[in-house]
Amino acid sequence: MNTTDYVRTVLKFILYPIIILLISLNIYFGIGPNIGLSFGYYGKFNSIMNNLEDSGIEVIDWGLHRDITLEDFQITVLHRGEKTQLEFENANIRSIDDLKKEIASMVSIGGSNEAKH
């Protein structure tokens, strides 16, 4: 076996599976950075953030309750000159459509100082 064949074998059977495993762990268990995907561990959070940005609402700050699943998250936004705290509780067991309805209601009513959901 020459050096080129050896390197190909190592890549094929050792390094590629490790890379795939690490990417899978990041996507589904939140091990590693949030890479902006709309599915997996950070999926609902990323979808809500994208929805806010698409609505023209400025995100000021955010916080995450990391656990086995991403249970809750908070987002502070500036909407129509008012600072509003959005709290998405039990996000891990709620549908993305349910979470997006909260954004729609906040946009239509003009926001409040605290919108707890």
Reconstruct the topology from this structure.
Elements: H1 3-29, H2 43-54, E1 58-65, E2 72-79, E3 82-88, H3 96-109, E4 114-116
Parallel strand pairs: 3-4
Antiparallel strand pairs: 1-2, 2-3
Helix pairs in contact: 2-3
Count of the separate structural domains? 2
SS class: alpha+beta
The N- and C-terminal alpha carbons lie at a distance of 63 Å
Helix content: 40-55%
Order of helices and strands: HHEEEHE
Mean pLDDT over the full residue set: 84
Number of helices, where a helix is a run of at least 4 consecutive DSSP H or I residues = 3
According to DSSP, the number of beta strands is: 4
Shape: elongated
Task: Please state how the strands of the largest beta sheet are arranged side by side.
Answer: 1-2-3-4
Strand portion: 15-25%
Biggest sheet: strands, sense, closure? 4 strands, mixed
Radius of gyration: 20 Å
Residue ranges: pLDDT <50 for 5 or more in a row?
Answer: 111-117
Explain this structure.
This protein has about 120 residues and is an alpha+beta fold. It has two domains: about 1-35; about 40-115. It contains three helices and four strands; from the N terminus they run ααβββαβ. A hairpin with a 2-residue loop joins β2 (about 70-80) and β3 (about 80-90). α2 runs parallel beside α3 (about 95-110). It starts with a helix and ends with a strand.
Give a nutshell description of this structure:
This protein has three helices and four strands. The protein has 117 residues and is of the alpha+beta class. The chain has two domains: 1-33; 38-116.
